[in-house]
Write a structure and sequence with these properties.
The complex is a heterodimer of chains A (348) and B (385).
Chain A (H helix, E strand, L loop, with lengths): L2 E16 L4 E17 L3 E5 L6 H8 L7 E6 L3 H13 L4 H10 L7 H7 L2 E4 L13 H11 L5 H14 L16 H13 L5 E5 L7 H18 L2 E6 L2 H7 L2 E6 L2 E6 L1 H6 L4 H9 L39 H5 L5 E2 L5 E2 L6
Parallel strand pairs in A: 3-7, 3-8, 5-6, 6-7
Antiparallel strand pairs in A: 1-2, 1-4, 8-9, 9-11, 10-11
Helix pairs in contact in A: 2-3, 5-6, 5-7, 6-7
Chain B lengths: L2 E13 L4 E13 L3 E5 L6 H8 L7 E11 L6 E3 L5 H7 L4 E4 L3 H4 L6 H12 L1 H18 L2 H23 L4 H6 L10 H17 L5 H5 L8 H13 L5 E5 L7 H18 L2 E6 L2 H7 L2 E6 L2 E7 H6 L4 H9 L35 H5 L5 E4 L2 E3 L5
Parallel strand pairs in B: 3-8, 3-9, 6-7, 7-8
Antiparallel strand pairs in B: 1-2, 1-4, 4-5, 9-10, 10-12, 11-12
The chains are: A alpha/beta (348), B alpha/beta (385).
């Protein structure tokens, strides 16, 4: 499997402005140094609580937001990446580096290049009640990417829209309707059809089922599974429910306060979590099985503000294993066997 | 165990322009003393409406059409028919004997009052006598201990206050304090009531494990995080030690780790106060964590009522089984329920689940299955059993 998306030391800070001149007086560090790779055909789950930066990460990866620093490579061979790394450590201001970045790094793209990229990568938003234009018929909503990217027009476009809608489980007769005539699950299907319109290779899902009922959620997840197999897609799937990530994803990254604290295969994360945060997240997840009521770890306190994260390991104020080291130094993400990575000085 | 709430043949209908929506259709449900009863179901199954109907808070254009809700008061031992109660009597029960925690803590709190003010209000409404008694004790202490010139000047006022608070302690709406409360300047004599209420409020906030309770009481809702707000709302609901606490999806808007803290809190409340909890949720995992018994609802009707263990180990109703199969679990293939949720305006005849049911018979299409007991503490509304 080759790498499709390669995220390196990605940061996205939002300035907090204050004073009369609206100068930046601080920054919300939504994503603070995340390195991740998504392999072609992988279903990567990104798990974390609200405010940990998972949505910002997804939006930055599909370039709806411009990163503050770091690189995002989309379908770039290893050679230029290594060259960039080498040049960066040698001379940050070299002209060669600038031209290489312009060629390869998604973070520097603008205008036409971004649009070309977006044909290949799409995003499905969280809330299907706000992500669809209420005044557009759904056939127009689904056709819009085809128009913007000038993929198809005329009769072919209409046929494509019909095919897309039937593929996601809606009937062609519903094409003329407006979003309010559909239920939540159906609307999410429309949003998925819209994302599929340009035949992308990569789709980022931002909690696509959090507004839906369990039975509808299962339908959507099964649909995503089928679509992935059929079109050979790569998914970045954001969720706050560990059970979903565990049951559908191939690989899981756990985020806490703008950083990835643990990465691994689902069974590793679920059965042998190594980071204390991942462990308590697993323990806090309500499992529909009354026999599992015991052995819960209730984390004290709340997630600190990303505008003013604690120094050192960001999790140390809530961690039971925190030592002096954790207060001062930031633990690096290190492999602990196989594909399992943990950012902790005292892994379990 | 004795019943606390007995719901019989409850029907709630919404008269909309499109037609009549049967939000709840002939519901029979008991809530026992000291238990946590969960109501689970999908959107539009009528679970929240059941909770609101108990408090008679069904919003317009909804109407409680028929049925009875009997509340068996544990303290007095009397039985009250809630649906026939006069509005002012009902108001004395709401927030006092039966209280509610809503889904969105941000929307449940008033943004322009401090947390302390809002919780104090509960005491000022329902615990006036107790506040009067406590205030009188405080004034009496001042009368006994007060020395010096300042105390000499204040003494007549203290005597007056003592008399007023005594009246309030006897009769919460006595004439003299009521009149005084309308006269500027003189109404200040009653300030100790609010003072006592805010002291009780801080105790209440400590009870729900809010750190630095005195500071939080002086803060406005926007200054608190979601978890803290929900704790404050729970404190408000628990202020009068209710016999029934209705929690309508109290953890839905919270994060998993905060949700775990809340569930722990609910468990502790039940153990400490012995109150019954009606826990409305769509999350089967949450239900399995806190509930003793669970009622599964579909399209305004009950499908199955049983203990949690029974629900997860031996689910009987086809809908319950399908719902459990739809929950993502490690190492399990996701099953979906065919078809869509029953249309509320034109519900299918007979059993409302029959169009989606794998084992539907012609009988299911014609006649509605009655809820019947198949084992101890296990009731199912299905012709298969």
């Amino acid at each position: 499997m080759n790498t499709l998306v390669d995220i390196r030391r990605l940061k996205k800070h939002f300035p907090i402005r204050g004073g009369v001149l609206r100068r930046p007086i601080g920054a919300v560090k939504a994503v603070d140094g995340v390195s991740l790779t998504i392999k072609r055909g992988q279903w990567l789950g990104l798990v974390g609580e609200s405010g940990c930066g998972k949505t910002t990460l997804a939006k930055t990866v599909v370039r709806l937001l411009r990163p503050t620093s770091g690189h995002v490579y989309f379908d770039i061979p290893d050679a230029p990446k290594a060259q960039i790394e080498a040049l960066e450590s040698a001379d940050k201001n070299s002209r060669e580096l600038a031209s290489l970045l312009k060629e390869n790094d998604l973070a520097t793209f603008s205008g036409h290049r971004v649009q070309l990229f977006r044909r290949r990568a799409q995003l499905v938003h969280q809330d299907p009640f706000t992500s669809l234009d209420p005044r557009m018929k759904i056939k127009n909503t689904v056709a819009e990417p085809l128009i913007i990217h000038r993929v198809l027009s005329g009769q072919a476009q209409q046929t494509a829209v019909k095919d897309l809608l039937t593929r996601v489980g809606l009937s062609a007769g519903q094409m003329e309707r407006y979003p309010h005539q559909f239920s939540g699950g159906q609307r999410q299907r429309i949003a998925i059809a819209r994302a599929l319109a340009t035949k992308p290779e990569f789709i980022a899902f931002d909690e696509p089922t959090s507004a839906l009922d369990v039975s509808v959620q299962a339908q959507i997840l099964n649909l995503l599974k089928d679509l992935k197999k059929e079109f050979g897609l790569t998914y970045l799937y954001i969720t706050h429910e560990l059970l979903i990530a565990e049951s559908v994803c191939d690989y899981i990254a756990v985020m806490y306060l703008g950083k990835v604290v643990e990465m691994g295969r689902p069974e590793e994360i679920f059965h042998t979590p190594r980071h204390p945060y991942a462990q308590s997240l697993v323990a806090a997840t309500p499992v529909p099985d009354p026999a599992r009521r015991v052995g819960r770890i209730v984390l004290p306190g709340e997630v600190p503000s990303p505008a003013n994260p604690p120094p050192g390991c960001t999790f140390h104020p809530r961690c039971s294993r925190a030592s002096k080291e954790c207060h001062e130094l930031e633990p690096p993400l290190e492999p602990v066997g196989g594909d399992h990575y943990v950012a902790c000085f005292h892994p379990l | 165990m004795k019943d606390l709430i007995r719901i019989r043949d409850l029907s709630v209908r919404f008269y909309t322009y499109e037609g009549v929506v049967h939000a709840i259709d002939d519901l029979d449900l008991d809530i026992r003393q000291g238990e946590t009863l969960g109501i689970v179901g999908e959107t539009g199954s009528g679970k929240s409406m059941t909770a609101l109907a108990i408090l008679r808070l069904v919003p317009y254009p909804g109407k409680i059409e028929s049925g009875s809700i009997v509340f068996c008061d544990r303290d007095s031992g009397g039985e009250v028919e809630l649906l026939k109660l006069r509005e002012d009597r009902m108001r004395a029960i709401r927030g006092n004997k039966i209280s509610m925690v809503f889904q969105e803590p941000g929307a449940a709190l008033n943004p322009v009052y401090t947390i302390g003010d809002q919780i104090s209000e509960v005491f000022l409404l329902h615990r006036r006598q107790e506040l009067g008694r406590r205030a009188r004790e405080r004034v009496d202490n001042l009368l006994n201990d007060g020395n010096g010139f300042g105390a000499g000047l204040k003494r007549p006022f203290w005597h007056w206050q003592s008399r007023i608070y005594d009246k309030i302690a006897e009769e919460p709406h006595a004439l003299e304090p009521r009149l005084l409360s309308h006269i500027p300047l003189f109404r200040r004599l009653l300030w100790r009531l609010k003072d006592e209420a805010s002291l009780l409020t801080v105790d209440m906030l400590k009870d729900v494990e809010i750190p630095d309770a005195a500071r939080v009481a002086a803060e406005y809702p926007h200054e608190l995080s979601g978890g803290m707000k929900q704790r404050a709302v729970i404190a408000m609901a628990l202020a009068c030690s209710p016999e029934l606490l209705i929690a309508d999806e109290p953890t839905t808007s919270l994060d998993v780790t905060i949700q775990a803290q809340m569930l722990e809190l609910f468990r502790r409340i039940k153990a400490d106060k012995g109150a019954s909890v009606l826990f409305v949720t769509h999350n089967l995992g949450v239900a399995s964590e806190v509930c003793d018994r669970v009622a599964v609802m579909y399209a305004g009707r009950l499908c199955e009522v049983c203990t949690v263990e029974e629900l997860f180990l031996h689910p009987l109703h086809p809908y319950t089984r399908a719902l459990l199969d739809a929950v993502p679990m490690p190492g399990k293939e996701l099953q979906t329920i065919p078809g869509a949720l029953a249309d509320a305006l034109n519900p299918p005849p007979g059993c409302r689940f029959h169009p989606r049911c794998p084992s539907a018979t012609p009988l299911c299409q014609q006649e509605r299955p009655k809820l019947k007991a198949v084992a101890k503490d296990h009731m199912v509304a299905c012709y298969l059993f």
